[in-house]
Write a structure and sequence with these properties.
The structure is a homodimer.
Chain A (H helix, E strand, L loop, with lengths): L11 H5 L18 E2 L14 E7 L16 E7 L10 H4 L9 H15 L6 E6 L2 H12 L5 E5 L4 H7 L5 E5 L1 E2 L2 E2 L1 H9 L10 E4 L13 H14 L2 E5 L29 H7 L13 E6 L11 E6 H12 L7 H44 L5 E3 L7 E7 L14 H15 L1 E2 L1 E2 L14 E7 L5 H19 L2
Parallel strand pairs in A: 5-6, 5-9, 9-10, 10-11
Antiparallel strand pairs in A: 2-3, 4-12, 7-8, 11-12, 13-14, 14-17, 16-17
Chain lengths: 479, 479
């Protein structure tokens, strides 16, 4: 299938970009009969790193991903200025200028991985490296949005992502959600009631899997419905998917307390693991209107500052022009070290890592929900085991507070604030859900929520924190 | 001295940025009596790099900077998840989220270095890390320029830097130059003749030392005169200074052919070396109106994608807000590895490196100019030994071509093109100077030039290339 021409969606900024005139000279670079005095590149002989070694754990990570690599059981990436392993990015190249899209060896790995996972139906997809999804989202706004444009956002979303967009002077159109994320019917309604004197939105920004802050994940059916709406109303879907591989096994209440419970059984094959992943918007992208922002931040480490953008080639070309005059390309150390590791692990070893990572998050999620079951007053609190990501929410009904109409003047946010403060007093910080409301947000009812994470804390701390938070809720509600 | 309030120079984009509301919660992070369930950070136990080792050369680099580190004579940066050396950035921190301004240990080194070199007179200067000067320049444009603003640029400048600015819809005001760079009197004239109905320029963008493409460097006197004009007409000076430490010893004709000539004698002390550097605009910056873009690209390696911005604190705060929602911070591997090296070298070892680097560039520059003396037809060609940087120029007088008025219709660019093509035919590529003309450029006379570099090529290749280029010039001029 071929992609649609969507160049009418580009911003003025993106349309204005031209390649550097020096590029035309670079076609002579490296020709044996030409002495090239054109480029201001330092000689790689002068780079003061001769060799870099990195020690990493070895697949299949039987002792868990937190186990330290030991003598004889480590993957050692040995990187030199010049190539030793075919799959490595030599330091003389990664530490030099060039390769804005990314080093070829790393691009190859990421493209193979993307093909394996997403099976994208339009043939014109490609990949460009980014320095992480925050930068990729900023680049996306620069590439598509002019002042006065509007963008669709989840009604609760990641404040940094919203703040990234604000200085572009865009207008936000929040899309109503429930526990399953964006409600497609509500999205369609927005267009049915659209004021024809306003331009339609350029794009939908969604954290489709393990959403921040709600922890919700869009089902395959909802994704299909949303994709159809995007085609009908001609907007892009920007899927920001750092948590995609934190999809977990089903929650079983009490499993975390069962000493005989194993998170490894039944053992899944790689094929079973991949088949169980929810299909991405990219997987549905027949027209080439999905821009997928993918990242190693939650899967390897945030500080690598390395991600990749998946989209149709013609649109990606505009990102490359932007990167040439901004970030250039991700750090050469990062590219050599990440590819050093991925090359040694191979696609199969990387899937082993993702499976082992999922196990860790499943253990933490199960433990968290079991602790919530024990400590939350069920009369006023609801919670839903997330199927992906780092976040869980605790949803409260303000109208169930005996003094809601009096002390809190029928304002759920006032109850929320009281619980936040009581939480701090008892010694637990959860983030109030109202902090994630997108601009132009309209409340549906008297519920509010808190966002917590099980990612950053060990289990014993999680238990203590949630017990304290339960106390805070009970205190405020007088239970 | 205290800096002036220059917030009236900020762009709408920069004024619109707000910090994330989540920041207010982060003041509770790490407090012993609070279980913090607020942040979506993965645990550093899960980062798949346990240890990284890097091998680098050892000061004082007696065998030159290109010598490979050998057994017993190498600096080995051994980096772990947790700290071993006080000055190291541990991987558990550098590979995690946080520290948008840069890791404290690296910031400390860079600030000490900046204080040592520039002795900035206003007390409110500070430093923020960038991912290189291209990104820092893009961030500068975002921070100060609105569509319709104008910026002062050198009449010949780096095309990528000009292309970075174009999509901001700024108007370019080229400043006339000679062999010494910007002519302060011409800059003053621009303001004397300024159309009062137009807003004055927001900033001057200058590559003050080893300018790209002309190879010129501004003298201390010119810098002082330009700084005064900036204060009088209230614009910022953005000094893009990747070549600052490629300042060379004086050129001595024929030295490269003298087998007894030593580039090490007389040996300079560190103090003599530092005192001989041309003072930067930052050194003159009493009012806090200089934004200095500094980079490791030409001094260590371009692929580290690491630089730093020096400016007054209040302005830098706006860069930090921008970085939070775009690049976040440079790669953690880069920060740990660069600081691993700099920490081991120390400020003194780093100055040793800079001295050794200067020697390499002096050798190459001297060789280049000596070869030009031998191969260029002096009747039509001029050249000037650059005092800094990677670039040299060969200036030609088109009016000295016998067929200038006829065959070339009195257009110097047509002669330039003929020589470019003849060069390619003979087997040498030098970049035509007209490719570097800034928008709105007005020619002074019938001269034109080519830019070459001695940075990227070994000496024997340089010789072959310049001989071929000399042939090309002679052929076109019929000499």
């Amino acid at each position: 299938m071929t992609a649609k021409d969507l160049s009418h969606l580009l911003s003025i900024e993106a349309k204005t970009r031209r390649p550097s005139p020096l590029k035309t000279a670079f076609k002579y670079y490296g020709k044996p009969d030409i002495v090239f005095l054109g480029g201001g590149l330092p000689m790689s002989d002068y780079f003061p790193w001769d060799k870099v070694l990195a020690y990493s754990p070895e697949p299949p990570f039987a002792d868990g991903i937190a186990a330290k690599p030991t003598e004889g059981k480590a993957v050692i990436s040995e990187l030199h200025k010049h190539k030793i392993e075919e799959f490595d990015v030599p330091l003389a190249r990664s530490l030099q200028y060039g390769h804005t899209e990314g080093q070829p060896e790393l691009l190859k790995f990421v493209k193979e991985h993307t093909a394996l996972i997403h099976k994208i139906p339009n043939e014109e997809w490609d990949v460009v490296l980014s320095v992480g999804n925050t930068q990729a989202w900023d680049a996306t706004l620069r590439t598509f949005c002019d002042p006065g444009d509007s963008i669709l956002v989840e009604e609760y979303s990641f404040p940094s992502a919203l703040e990234t967009a604000s200085p572009f002077q865009v207008d936000y159109v929040p899309v109503p959600m429930d526990n399953g994320g964006i409600i497609p019917e509500k999205l369609e309604e927005l267009f049915e009631n659209w004021d024809a004197s306003n331009k339609k939105p350029k794009l939908l920004y969604t954290i489709a899997t393990g959403q921040n802050p709600t922890g919700s994940s869009l089902s395959a059916e909802r994704r299909e419905a949303i994709y159809k709406i995007a085609c009908k109303h001609d907007f892009l879907i920007v899927e920001d998917e750092p948590y995609y591989f934190l999809q977990m096994n089903d929650y079983k209440q009490g499993a975390s307390e069962d000493p005989k419970h194993s998170y490894d059984e039944p053992k899944q094959t790689h094929e079973e693991f991949l088949a169980a992943l929810v299909p991405s918007f990219s997987h549905l992208d027949t027209e080439g209107r999905v821009v997928r922002l993918d990242s190693f931040s939650k899967v390897l480490a945030p500080g690598v500052r390395l991600g990749w953008i998946v989209a149709q080639k013609k649109l990606l070309e505009r990102y490359v022009r932007l990167h040439e005059v901004s970030i250039q390309t991700p750090s050469g150390f990062t590219q050599s070290l990440v590819q050093g590791l991925l090359g040694r692990w191979g696609q199969s070893g990387y899937v082993d890592w993702l499976i082992a990572l999922r196990k860790e998050y499943t253990i933490k999620r199960d433990f968290t929900i079991d602790v919530l079951h024990k400590n939350m007053p069920k009369d006023v609190v609801e919670f839903f085991p997330p199927s992906a990501g780092m976040f869980f929410t605790v949803v409260l009904d303000a109208s169930k507070h005996p003094d809601f109409k009096t002390k809190f003047a029928s304002d759920p946010i006032k109850v929320e604030t009281a619980i936040y403060e009581a939480g701090l007093e008892k010694g637990c910080l959860m983030i109030p859900g109202s902090w994630f409301q997108s601009p132009n947000f309209k409340p549906h009812d008297n519920t509010f929520f808190f966002r917590g994470t099980y990612a950053a804390v060990p289990l014993d701390q999680l238990k203590v924190g949630l017990e304290r938070f339960g106390e805070a809720v009970k205190t405020v509600y007088g239970l």
